[in-house]
């Protein structure tokens, strides 16, 4: 009976394995083909979900009380009267030329809407991943080094707890405790409503823009609002990072070169960090990259709780009014981000692991 | 038993045991020996506890319980030293050559840096000095192009080369005792003798006490001065390599009979037929 | 598709499966964390079975004279914005939770097994195509894809279950494929082939039973994720619809009152957390119990 725990293979198995079924490093050409095929599949999937399900895209645009004629006009303009394969190629052409249509709710092109909300989510996710990796990696190493001792068990429960909490609920409890009761952090939104509009920066990242503008009030307000949702997201992502770090590390600690390092007279501490840990760095980059993509999932929920004007909220808002075009564009973008992160981690493997050169 | 002069290592009734569900299980039982500036072989089959002895001497068995009446290394009782004091002994005064360079070298660090590290740990010096030391040591183990080899990664060197790098790493600090744990059994037959020759030269030049752990009786009797035969965690017999033919313990005799030899009888080689009384060591061996 | 799981097995095989099962159980009970997980899950099942008997009130009866009552007295966990008893709603919610887990599991298991074993056994172009599809599904975070499906199908509990099932079969398929590859070249499969058994028959009778144990474990590990995804969908208003006492949906409606009436969101949240933690602890214990590498050191 083989249960994949990520122990055996030198490369992590998980969400990221999809570009390399054999677990081996592919040739660059093979990889490009593989990426293209996956992208094409992604398009087919979003097309199928978007067009072949019961939700009526016309109704979402024209509203419930529209006349037959209006309905028919929109129906034909969307090309829904054409055969399905023709619709698909039209969709394909639109995507390739960057035409993702107009969002019903905002009246703006979907892609510019998404570009507008993305920085808020990236800011949140980046902060979260720093916390998640900063917490998860040391905990994973400590757990592995103290395998089966009390520290290992405490860390196991702590990280499983982070893995088990419904993040939208923890967000609320966090708001009740740290905002409403203790007043330590800011409440909903990216900053106090008082400051909204004061800083309109070039990047869209509030922390950076406020620094550029030299407006410390906005900076602190933004940081104050960011810290709670980012910590909660980070904690939940640290669970996976901790577990994988522990498992990679256990693998390394059983290796003979660790004994060599000890024989040379290195202390336990130096052996762990200078020898074993350097061997899992590359694997960890992959795990962190994948967790970063996974944060998009948590962002959908946590942004709703914290009224965070980011990608997740944009997605749910469009979901609730049934704007399938906007929703599918969001889904497509998540898929593309995931593929991008996979490619990135593959590239990092090539660069940092001497064995793949 | 001949006591060598100038004893470096004196071991008396060393036992190593592991905890299990039902109490302690012995991996090594009451073994005693001493080591001077000589080559001592420890021979035994897998599971006989021979590798455990090597690691116990360096106190590298975190989960094991090590006990001994005596475990003196140049007058220092090893079992009473703190972990910090052990760090000064490991790699500096006592080191160990491990079996397979494919696994015993850190795969993502340059081999030269790994050799130099052994020096940097114990001597206050610049990286450049350590590099120079490592370079000359690589030369000493007959690596022809140390400049190039220094910057290679372990997967880029052959097994024989890897083991020579290992030897360089472990002998760089001029230790008094080197334990070689099956140093050639992972190597191709063709390079075994070469690697052994290098090890032999360096050990004799520098007056190092060598403990050679192996399952290969022929190799050990040809290479070492004295041989300890281990069976089931005990030393059952201890004798000079040159007097191997006069072995008295039935296990040793069985081993000898199982060796093929040129010009010997053509009858099928005898197979070890285990008997419980083999676990009783000869008088004076333990 | 379900007949894969229900396919009659020879009695001897079933009997021989009991002993290892008991061993696994013993192993699980030895560790306090997985024993805790098992206990919580057992409790959950019992509560679901006896929910009508244990509930102090009708979960759906509104009482507008008695809204937002704090815990204590007549209402153990207080009442919600419509005067419904939260304790009774939580109890009935256990049934919804178990229902979701059950339906998702019996859908995902067979789909994953079918895709994985066919891809692994037939190989070649089947393998390439099926695994490519699997990979595409895997290139999304589960919740996002589930959101997309629910958006297309329309929000409801059943659609949420379908969406979760559609997004959680790929890891099972990958696992089943990996298992199949290890069995494919073994002698007893070759023997079956030489006897003229059809690929379908070989897959059903020789490969699927061998994959079942590890697939079951993976399904258990999945359950925590299923619970969290379902709760998340409920919270976003895309899963179970009011007045159903689904825990995620309860949190969503309680959100408006959370600053003054903390009990509205606290108790459903703790329930989700406990159950998902229990499945995670159990899964973690199972992995330890069945990982040969880990067994060796004990």
Automatic annotation (TrEMBL), chain B:
InterPro entries: AAA+_ATPase, ABC_Ni/Peptide_Import, ABC_transporter-like_ATP-bd, P-loop_NTPase. It is a peripheral membrane protein. PROSITE patterns: ABC_TRANSPORTER_2. CDD domains: ABC_NikE_OppD_transporters (cd03257). Pfam families: ABC_tran (PF00005). GO terms for cellular component: plasma membrane. Keywords: ATP-binding, Cell membrane, Membrane, Nucleotide-binding, Transport. It comes from the Bacteria. SUPFAM superfamilies: P-loop containing nucleoside triphosphate hydrolases. One of its GO terms (molecular function) is ATP binding. Coiled coil: none annotated. It is found in: Cell inner membrane. Its main location: membrane. Residues 11-257 form the ABC transporter domain. GO terms for biological process: transmembrane transport. Belongs to the ABC transporter superfamily. This is Peptide ABC transporter ATP-binding protein.
TrEMBL record, chain C:
The keyword Cell membrane applies. It comes from the Bacteria. Residues 94-283 form the ABC transmembrane type-1 domain. PROSITE patterns: ABC_TM1. InterPro entries: BP-dependent_transpt_permease (IPR050366), MetI-like (IPR000515), MetI-like_sf (IPR035906), OppC_N (IPR025966). It is a multi-pass membrane protein. GO terms for biological process: peptide transport; protein transport; transmembrane transport. Its main location: membrane. Keywords: Cell membrane, Membrane, Peptide transport, Protein transport, Transmembrane, Transmembrane helix, Transport. GO terms for cellular component: plasma membrane. The chain crosses the membrane at residues 35-55, 100-124, 136-154, 219-241, 261-283. It is found in: Cell membrane. Belongs to the binding-protein-dependent transport system permease family. This is D-ala-D-ala transporter subunit.
């Amino acid at each position: 009976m083989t249960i994949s725990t990520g122990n055996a293979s030198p490369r992590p198995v998980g969400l990221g394995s999809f570009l390399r079924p054999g677990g081996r490093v592919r040739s660059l050409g093979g990889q490009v083909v593989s990426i293209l095929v996956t992208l094409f599949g992604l398009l087919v999937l979003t097309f199928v979900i978007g067009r072949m399900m019961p939700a009526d895209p016309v109704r979402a645009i024209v509203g419930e009380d529209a006349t037959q004629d209006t309905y028919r006009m929109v129906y034909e303009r969307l090309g829904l009267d054409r055969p399905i394969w023709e619709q698909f190629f039209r969709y394909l052409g639109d995507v390739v030329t960057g035409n993702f249509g107009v969002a019903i709710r905002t009246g703006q092109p979907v892609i510019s809407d998404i570009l507008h909300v993305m920085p808020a989510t990236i800011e949140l996710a980046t902060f979260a991943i720093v916390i998640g990796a900063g917490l998860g990696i040391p905990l994973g190493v400590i757990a592995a080094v103290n395998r089966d001792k009390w520290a290992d068990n405490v860390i196991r429960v702590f990280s499983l707890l982070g893995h088990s909490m419904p993040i939208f609920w923890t967000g609320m409890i966090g708001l009740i405790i740290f905002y409403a009761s203790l007043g330590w952090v800011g409440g909903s939104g990216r900053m106090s409503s008082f400051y909204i509009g004061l800083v309109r920066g070039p990047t869209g990242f509030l922390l950076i823009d406020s620094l550029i503008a030299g407006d410390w009030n906005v900076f602190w307000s933004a940081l104050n609002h960011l810290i709670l949702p980012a910590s909660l997201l980070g904690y939940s992502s640290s669970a996976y990072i901790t577990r994988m770090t522990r498992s990679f590390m256990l693998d390394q600690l059983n290796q003979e070169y660790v004994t060599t390092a000890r024989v040379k007279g290195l202390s336990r501490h130096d052996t762990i960090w200078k020898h074993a840990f350097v061997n899992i760095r590359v694997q960890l980059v992959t795990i962190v990259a994948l967790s970063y993509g996974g944060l998009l999932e948590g962002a959908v929920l946590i942004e709703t709780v914290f009224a965070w004007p980011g990608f997740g909220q944009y997605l749910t808002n469009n979901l609730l009014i049934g704007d399938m075009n906007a929703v599918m564009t969001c889904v497509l973008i998540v898929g593309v981000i995931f593929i991008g992160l996979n490619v990135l981690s593959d590239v990092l493997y090539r660069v940092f692991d001497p064995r793949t050169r | 038993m001949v006591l060598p002069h100038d004893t470096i290592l004196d071991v008396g009734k060393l036992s190593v045991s592991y905890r299990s569900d039902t109490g302690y299980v012995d991996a090594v039982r009451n073994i005693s020996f001493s080591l001077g500036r000589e080559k001592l072989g420890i021979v035994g089959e897998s599971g006989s506890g021979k590798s455990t002895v090597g690691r116990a001497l360096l106190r590298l068995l975190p989960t094991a319980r090590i006990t001994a009446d005596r475990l003196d290394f140049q007058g220092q009782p090893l079992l009473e030293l703190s972990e910090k004091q052990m760090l000064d002994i490991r790699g500096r005064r006592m080191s160990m050559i491990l079996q397979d360079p494919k696994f015993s070298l850190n795969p993502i660090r340059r081999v030269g840096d790994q050799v130099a590290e052994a020096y940097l740990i114990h001597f206050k010096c610049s990286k450049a000095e350590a590099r120079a030391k490592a370079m000359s040591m690589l030369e000493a183990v007959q690596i022809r192009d140390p400049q190039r080899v220094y910057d290679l990664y372990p997967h880029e060197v052959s097994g024989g080369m890897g083991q020579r790098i290992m030897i360089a790493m472990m002998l760089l600090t001029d230790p008094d005792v080197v334990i070689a744990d099956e140093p050639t059994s992972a190597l191709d037959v063709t390079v075994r003798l070469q690697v052994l020759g290098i090890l032999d030269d360096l050990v004799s030049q520098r007056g190092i006490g060598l403990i050679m752990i192996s399952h290969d009786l022929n190799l050990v009797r040809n290479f070492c001065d004295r041989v300890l035969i281990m069976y089931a965690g005990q030393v059952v017999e201890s004798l000079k390599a040159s007097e191997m033919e006069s072995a008295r313990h039935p296990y040793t005799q069985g081993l000898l009979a199982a060796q093929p030899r040129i010009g010997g009888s053509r009858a099928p080689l005898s197979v070890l037929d285990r008997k419980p009384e083999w676990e009783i060591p000869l008088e004076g061996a333990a | 598709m379900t007949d894969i799981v229900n396919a009659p097995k020879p009695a001897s095989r079933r009997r021989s499966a009991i002993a290892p099962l008991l061993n696994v159980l013993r192993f699980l009970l030895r560790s306090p964390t997985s024993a805790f997980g098992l206990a919580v899950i057992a409790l959950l099942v019992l509560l679901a079975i006896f929910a009508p008997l244990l509930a102090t009130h009708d979960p759906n009866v509104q009482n507008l004279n008695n809204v937002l009552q704090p815990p204590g007295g007549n209402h153990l966990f207080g009442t919600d914005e419509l005067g419904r008893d939260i304790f009774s709603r939580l109890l009935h919610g256990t049934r919804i939770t178990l229902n979701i887990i059950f339906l998702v599991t019996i859908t995902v298991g067979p789909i994953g097994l079918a895709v994985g074993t066919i891809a692994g056994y037939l190989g070649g172009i089947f393998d390439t195509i099926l695994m490519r599809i699997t990979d595409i599904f895997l290139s999304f975070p589960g919740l996002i894809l589930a959101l997309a499906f629910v958006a297309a199908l329309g929000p409801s509990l059943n659609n949420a279950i379908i969406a979760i099932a559609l997004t959680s079969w790929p890891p099972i398929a990958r696992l089943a494929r990996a298992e199949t590859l290890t069995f494919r070249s073994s002698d007893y499969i070759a023997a079956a082939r030489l006897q003229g058994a059809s690929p379908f028959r070989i897959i059903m009778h020789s490969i699927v039973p061998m994959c079942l144990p590890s697939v079951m474990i993976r399904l258990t590990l999945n359950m925590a994720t299923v619970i969290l995804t379902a709760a998340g969908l409920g919270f976003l208003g895309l899963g179970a619809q009011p007045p159903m006492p689904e825990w995620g949906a309860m949190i969503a409606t309680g959100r408006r009152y959370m600053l003054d009436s903390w009990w509205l969101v606290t108790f459903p949240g703790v329930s989700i957390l406990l159950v998902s933690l229990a499945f995670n602890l159990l899964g973690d214990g199972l992995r330890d119990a069945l990982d040969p590498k880990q067994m060796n050191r004990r």
